[in-house]
Design goal:
Cytidine Deaminase, domain 2; 2 domains; about 375 residues; 9-stranded mixed β-sheet; 5-stranded mixed β-sheet
């Protein structure tokens, strides 16, 4: 790559570099960096590629060496000023001799809170912020939500027929979506910290809930199961020693039944609001465990509860060009729902693809998609 046409193209390249490493860096944010000269000629570039590994700015500056002196650094996130798994980046930027830093978005983490930019300014480095800021906020939305609210980013996923059915009237659902759609789902699973299903889905489908082939992360498999009904012979329980399984139960679950699951290697998490497993408490627990992205795969009741509780951040819907019919077949989202169509939730930043003849709709629930 030679020279960039415009500054915005440099930042767009930095965002592209960052986005490639989703699933590898969490609970850190995805970050990319590019170093250019005054003519926007590429000097070096880098990305944060692994949790605990060097940050994007350091990778790019190390590659630039002495050529960084007097150059401009474009970075998707404010350089950090604290020591964590790695040394602080702001002092490294200052020592490199960089003349100007262009930042896509400030760091939302309370422990940074603008200190990185302040250090750079105090060192006499010119600062520009908010270039492609909306794209930058969207990129780090899961990190922002974890840092500011202590909660993971909730992805809701389902596959349905064209007439909105999760299965036929007999409960058969294999397979609604195409092989290409299922491949996308497995790639999505491989970037998650957890996959959550309700006990109805676990009983009906006996799912494994793993990414095949494996991705950069091995998600914890979670069943919302108030009465601890998950069978000991289910695929989830039988593979609990290979990949973690959590069964979230209420007070209605018997002590003996919970003990049986625990002896089989399942973690039993008792969360109670009197009758059911409160999803907000479950998500809070996952946030405390530093989980950044979780995928809710159904069924209808669980997704409905998530929608009613305003817990969903991002939607992945796969629509097959088939018709199943029947008033007895479940639709993807149950729950109480909305009363008036003008109040229906409208997704933003919607992307549509066509894998294997299906329609894959991906969109965000919140206007800024920032997790705030």
């Amino acid at each position: 790559m030679g020279a960039f046409a415009e500054p915005v193209d440099v930042m767009r390249r930095a965002l592209e570099l960052a986005a490639q490493w989703g699933g590898y860096v969490e609970p850190n944010p995805c970050v990319g960096a590019v170093v250019v000269d005054d003519r926007l000629q590429l000097i070096s570039e880098g990305a944060h590629t692994k949790f605990g590994g060097p940050h994007a700015e350091v990778v790019a500056l190390n590659a630039a060496g002495e050529r960084a002196r007097g150059a401009t650094l474009y970075v998707t996130l404010e350089p950090c000023a604290h020591v964590g798994q790695t040394p602080a980046c702001a002092p490294r930027v200052i020592a490199s001799g960089i003349r100007k830093v262009v930042v896509c978005t400030p760091d939302p983490a309370p422990h940074t809170a603008g200190r990185g930019l302040q250090l750079l300014r105090e060192a006499g480095i010119e600062i520009e912020t908010e270039l492609l800021a909306e794209e930058g906020r969207r990129l780090i939305a899961p990190f922002t939500k974890l840092m500011t609210r202590g909660l993971p980013w909730v992805h809701a996923k389902w596959a349905m027929t064209l007439d909105g059915k999760l299965a036929t009237r007999t409960g058969d659902s294999k397979w609604i979506s195409s092989e290409e759609s299922r491949r996308i789902v497995h790639e999505l699973r491989g970037r998650m910290d957890a996959i959550i299903v309700g006990i109805g889905t676990a009983l009906a489908d006996d799912p494994l809930l793993t990414a095949r082939p494996p991705g950069p992360r091995t998600p914890v498999r979670i069943v919302v199961d108030s009465e601890a009904r998950l069978p000991l012979g289910s695929q989830l329980v039988r593979t609990a020693h290979e990949a973690s399984v959590i069964v979230a139960v209420s007070h209605r679950a018997s002590v003996e039944r919970c003990a049986q699951l625990a002896r089989a290697g399942v973690e039993v998490l008792r969360l109670d609001d009197g009758h059911h497993v409160p999803l907000h408490m479950l998500l809070s627990e996952l946030g405390q465990r530093r989980m950044t992205n979780v995928l809710v795969e159904g069924g209808s009741r669980l997704l409905g509860s998530c929608l009613d509780g305003q817990l969903i951040d991002e939607v992945h819907a796969f629509i097959a060009p088939t018709l199943a019919g029947s008033i007895d077949a479940f639709s993807p989202i149950g729950g109480e729902g909305i009363a008036h169509m003008p109040d229906a939730l409208r997704l933003v930043n919607v992307n549509v693809q066509h894998p294997g003849g299906d329609v894959y709709v991906r969109g965000y629930v919140r206007e800024t998609a920032s997790g705030e």
